[in-house]
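Our preliminary data section would be incomplete without showing what the modeling component actually yields. Below, a chain of 367 amino acids is followed by its predicted structure, encoded as tokens that our downstream tools consume directly.
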Amino acid sequence: MKETVQKILDDADVKINGDRDWDIHVHNPDFYQRVLAQGSLGLGESYMEGWWEVKKLDEFIFRLMKVEIDKKIISPLFVYHFIKAKVVNVQTKTGSKKVAELHYNLGNEFYSDMLDKRMQYTCAYWKDAKNLDEAQEKKLDMICKKLELKPGEKVLELGCGWGGFAKYASEKYGVEVTAYNISKEQVKYARDITKGLKVKIIESDYRDAKGRYDKIASIGMCEHVGYKNYRIFMELADKCLKDNGLFLIHTIGANKSKTHTDPWIDKYIFPNSMLPSARQLTEAFEGKFVLEDWHNFGPDYDKTLMKWFENFDKNWHKHKMKYDEKFYNMWKFYILSSAAAFRVRNIHLWQIILSKGRRPGTYNSIR
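Predicted structure:
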């Protein structure tokens, strides 16, 4: 078993028990059979359980992804997820709540020790930024500029996180924001920080959105919509957006069209999630919107994630009484493997601007 795994790792220039930062050190001999049988799920779970370690986890995963090692180990679990996604719509209103319960409701204190001061849990924009706080503020300001926000306009936000965009847009641009979110913890926090502002935070699924708005923003929620619902998502935005309005989608995107997510990510981090491809999104909005701008700054997510891990690791001592070492390893694997995926350009960060109707003139792309 060990020889078989080493042969697979050779293409990635990784040695078992080698002396380089990205070489893997195996502590449990059952690791080899587990990885061959379970693929990415076995790799992630065995790391959580301390069966193996590596000095620089992100560099190890980067090398595996660079040679597409997942194609060399096709586990039955992969086939199961593929079939399940084809047969079942896992991103129903009920199914979508699972990610809020498992991930987003972990606790606001936990996330505040990892994120920036505005609690932004999406990619920062690092152009001319010196630190994470600046980079996240630049991201928010760029979104407001791309949407051409004007005082008095009504903005719909589909999925609002901890309310950072709603607060920023209302304070800095004088707009009125209505936001939908299904996470109780995030809604509570968002309502607190937006008190006194023209912001309404509604604890409900995005599909429940009502009314007509000048602009719509969806920041980091499209990853939870699912391929069976992309057209529904676009139809909802079309219904809620006034003529000549703008719709911004900020989402992680994949190079290839898929119908499911990685088994380990699905089980431990983002259940029932999936990353859209460009083709899936364009097919979904065809006939509904005009594409005005498509901005890819995925490499900025690599840097953002590394900053998040730095904060998470530095503040772990505050949370270790509540969460065990397995939880620490799980979050380390999640953050650093995500950074590796952006580094190898398997996934990207897209900001897409769509317009409705016969909007006059040329759209001014902001960078």
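Strands lie at 25-26, 52-53, 154-158, 176-181, 199-203, 213-219, 241-254, 290-296, 347-355. The chain has a mean pLDDT of 92. Preliminary results of this kind motivate Aim 1 of the renewal.
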